Amino acid sequence: MDSVLLIYKGIYILAIFGISLLIATYSTYFERKIAAFIQDRVGPNRAGPMGLLQPLADAGKLFFKEEFIPAKANKMLFILGPGIAMLVAAMSSAVIPFGDTLIIGETSFDLIAIDVNIGILYIFGVVSLGVYGLMIGGWASNNKFSLLGAIRAASQNISYELAMGLSLIAVLMLSGSLSLKVIAEQQTGFNWNIWYQPLGFLIFLICAFAETNRTPFDLPESEAELIGGYHTEYSSMKLGMYLFAEYINIFVVSAVMATLYFGAYNFPFMENLRNAFDDPVLGNNVVTIIGVAVMFAKIFAFIFFFMWVRWTLPRFRYDQLMKLGWNILIPLAILNILLTGGGILLYEYFTKG
Amino acid sequence: MEPLSNRRKNVAQKEMTLSERMYLPAIAQGLGITIKHFFKKKATINYPEETRQRSDVWRGLHVLKRDENGAERCTACGLCAVACPAEAITMTAGERKKGEEHLYREEKYAVTYEVNMLRCIFCGLCEEACPKAAIFLQDDKLAPARYERDEFIYGKDRLVEPLKTTETK
Q1: A287, A277, A303: which is closest to A208 by C-alpha?
Q2: What is the pTM of this model?
Q3: Is the confidence metric ipTM above 0.90 for this complex?
Q4: What are chain B's domains?
Q5: Model confidence over A26-72: pLDDT tens digits?
Q6: Strand order, beta sheet including B153-154
Q7: Is B36 annotated as a binding residue?
Q8: Less Cβ around it within 10 Å: N or C end of chain A?
Q9: What residues of chain A, 19 to 48, have a C-beta less than 8 Å from chain B?
Q10: Considering CB atoms only, which of A38, A42, A313 is closest to B38?
């Protein structure tokens, strides 16, 4: 019994790892395609049908490029930087529930790699390690632009992680649990957290942009001012790893937002669908499979939104970024906590007397 | 100061309203504009597969025309070479022998006729100078890029209009 579960977990973890790599790969393609469409162009369309093999061509190109390490760079840290960025990005999708349970025979399989009761804390901890990748890379390059990019990355991530955590606390007050699985289960049907936490979601969304270093908060790698910031000196697949890690982070943050605010794998009328089947096992499995599809649809919608925003907004100035983070988002997040607390108290006063 | 024209506008730095300071309405507006472009018809012309429609008077690669019987019209009079401002055209004249009437229309013809495409400025003056309507600049072809300079000197082999097989005797 235990060995079945162990094998299942192994396969599941590999599958999630593969899926997140695949999504990151094709994010580069869709990024270019969406950029092109927004700018009235057609985008990559030469490699394969509709340019679908473009990511492979890009990866091949990156592999064959010269691996350049600057003479005065700290060699070990220089190689460690992209490694950490990539490792940490790939680790963070472990606690996200991509679906409910599948029942095969007598055993039920949870569609989640590790169900830890501190899921969201785990994600925060791992994601904030990601900034070490950028900092080490920027520092080891021994280049002023890289260092500036690294400093910007560090201070930006610290500033926005505060507001992000505070906006999250309001959700935790509603759910009473740190486990992403529990949070997902509480939002059955159409009872999504976004209806209770619109302000919190907005703050979380803005912070998510800053955490993943996406436009309008892509100051660490602003090519206009810093020639690429922390990855100025990187070439070949080490550069590829940094870019790849960014896309995996987008995928993970999209998944977290879908789980926390948009009901994860829940969709409207799922209970009606479940009860429509005579066989409860079959009903459960059908709902679960549709739920997985719904979850990925939500994730893709968020990834699209990330790209849509990137090709709409210009970059913030650094002082504007700091002002927005500390003077506006953090007070708003605290206000949101107060409002949520008041709301919960009122609700309990009127319902429980 | 006295205004020089009535176009002058007084600009004042107004205090931004709350909705302007929130930026979010403006961001939503911007996202609306970009998503509109997302679904717009694309401006791209996929070049090798599609080509842009050229103007009727567009001047491309030269062609030496044949007459209705398939004989070359050019008589090597040299007016095109004289008219050419870039001095791109050279030719040598020859006399038509007996039995070559189906090849050359007049008694004199061009043994060689060369246009240097690196010198040519595609002005079309040769076309205007020609009294026999022999040389034209096509509107659908252009001199392609090549690796060697020699390859840009187009001789009769590449300039003369190919024979239409149905009309040959």
Answers
A1: A303
A2: 0.79
A3: no
A4: 62-159 (3.30.70.3270)
A5: 888 999 999 999 998 888 888 888 888 888 888 888 888 888 888 88
A6: B89-95, B108-116, B153-154
A7: no
A8: C
A9: 34, 37-42, 45
A10: A38
